[in-house]
Amino acid sequence: MARRPAVSRQHSVPAPALDAFDQRILALYQHDTRIIAEEIAEKVGLSAASVQRRLKRLRETGVIMRETATLHPNALGFPVTCIVGVDVEYERAEHLDSFKKLMLKHPNVQQCYYVTGEIDFILVVATRDLAQYEAFTREAFMNNRNVVSFTTYVVMDTVKSGSALPL
């Protein structure tokens, strides 16, 4: 199976026509990708074969971007999550692309958003401890001539985390 690119370009996927069955299938599937087609079919009123065909089409058209396991960071030794706002000096395409590539390569960066407003990027970074986070900031920000400043918010409690859409 071919690997999909790590870059998420939500705006580049044209919105395919989704009917009510597609919406109901996705509403179930986004919460549990291990749910079998027969169970989905029973809940939405289609055959299992029809559900399988629709899921295949939704993958091929990019509506289903990827199917992953959600791991508990504390159980794996990553109890520190930081939300980081980054301001860059130069916003020419090559400078922005360079920063994006750096963030894509860094394993501690879980999410990276190029945003509008007073800052240019918002990151979610998971680390084993604050010393590892400091090492990350030195590598990614302090040694990067294009980074003007960054602001760190250490997560004290995760109230809600996920990617499910309200279908």
Topology overview:
Blueprint: H1 20-29, H2 37-44, H3 48-60, E1 80-88, H4 93-105, E2 109-114, E3 121-127, H5 130-142, E4 147-154
Antiparallel strand pairs: 1-3, 1-4, 2-3
Helix pairs in contact: 2-3
Rg calculated over all Cα atoms: 19 Å
Major beta sheet summary: 4 strands, antiparallel
Tell me the number of structural domains: 2
Q: What is the CATH architecture term of the largest domain? A: 2-Layer Sandwich
Name the average pLDDT.
92
Structural class: alpha+beta
Q: What oligomeric state do the depicted chains represent? A: single chain
CATH fold annotation of the largest domain: Alpha-Beta Plaits
**Strands, count:** 4
Q: Low-confidence parts lasting 5 or more residues at pLDDT below 50?
A: 1-7
Helices, by number, come to 5
> Helical amount among residues, as a percent range?
25-40%
Separation, N- and C-terminal Cα atoms = 28 Å
What is this entry, summarized?
This protein has 167 residues and is of the alpha+beta class.
Key phrases:
Arc Repressor Mutant, subunit A, elongated, Alpha-Beta Plaits, alpha+beta, 167 residues
